[in-house]
């Protein structure tokens, strides 16, 4: 047998061994529809759980703490303003009283505007409105790590934007409080 034939056999054997070890290492990972291992947002492989069922291609559920939305409130704002009104403070104080009786997971403040004006400006204004609510909660002792804000602009109106009454209802922050069971 020639040296080149021996080298070819050795390379083939090495390639087969390497492929086998890669496949062996990936057998406990979930695979996507094209057969590639699935990775999470930080590029780590997603592992199969011990109770993975090959036949149903489903993973049995894992018990985790369940959170539930326990408070849904709205605060309203004047046209082109993001500062809280006195009536908003009273409403937010009532929410704070309820928070003291819960195992808080997170607070989400969604800021909205009416449809008047530039969409980019409205997006920024809606974020400032949500930020006003966040700052109020922080000033009352809620840790900022529990508060998330989202700018929605004029998306998802709750009333018509064809008259002042409807637009006034759309200038709001929706507050959702989630608690652990």
TrEMBL record:
Pfam families to which the protein is assigned, alphabetical: OmpA (PF00691)
OmpA-like domain: residues covered: 64-181
Main location: membrane
Keyword terms of this UniProt record: Cell outer membrane, Membrane, Signal
Cell location: Cell outer membrane
SUPFAM superfamilies attached to this UniProt entry: OmpA-like (SSF103088)
UniProt cross-references to Gene3D superfamilies, sorted A to Z: OmpA-like domain (3.30.1330.60)
Taxonomic superkingdom: Bacteria
InterPro entries: Bact_OuterMem_StrucFunc (IPR050330), OMP_bac (IPR006664), OmpA-like (IPR006665), OmpA-like_sf (IPR036737)
Gene Ontology CC: cell outer membrane
Residues making up the signal peptide according to the UniProt record: 1-24
The name this protein goes by in its record: OOP family OmpA-OmpF porin
Native source organism of the sequence: Candidatus Kinetoplastidibacterium desouzai TCC079E
């Amino acid at each position: 047998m020639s040296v080149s034939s021996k080298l070819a056999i050795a390379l083939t054997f090495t390639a087969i061994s390497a492929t086998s070890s890669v496949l062996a290492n990936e057998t406990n990972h979930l695979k996507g529809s094209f057969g590639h291992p699935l990775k999470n947002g930080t590029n780590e492989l997603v592992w199969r759980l011990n109770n993975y069922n090959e036949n149903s291609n489903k993973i049995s559920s894992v018990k985790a703490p369940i959170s539930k939305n326990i408070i849904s409130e709205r605060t309203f704002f004047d046209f082109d303003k993001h500062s809280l009104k006195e009536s908003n403070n009273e409403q937010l104080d009532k929410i704070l009283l309820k928070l003291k009786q819960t195992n808080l997971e997170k607070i989400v403040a969604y800021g909205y505007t009416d449809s008047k004006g530039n969409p980019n400006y409205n997006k920024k204004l809606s974020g400032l409105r949500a930020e006003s609510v966040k700052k109020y909660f922080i000033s009352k002792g809620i840790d900022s790590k529990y508060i998330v804000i989202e700018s929605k602009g004029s998306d998802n109106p709750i009333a018509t934007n064809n008259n002042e009454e409807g637009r006034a209802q759309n200038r709001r922050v929706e507050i959702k409080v989630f608690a652990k069971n």
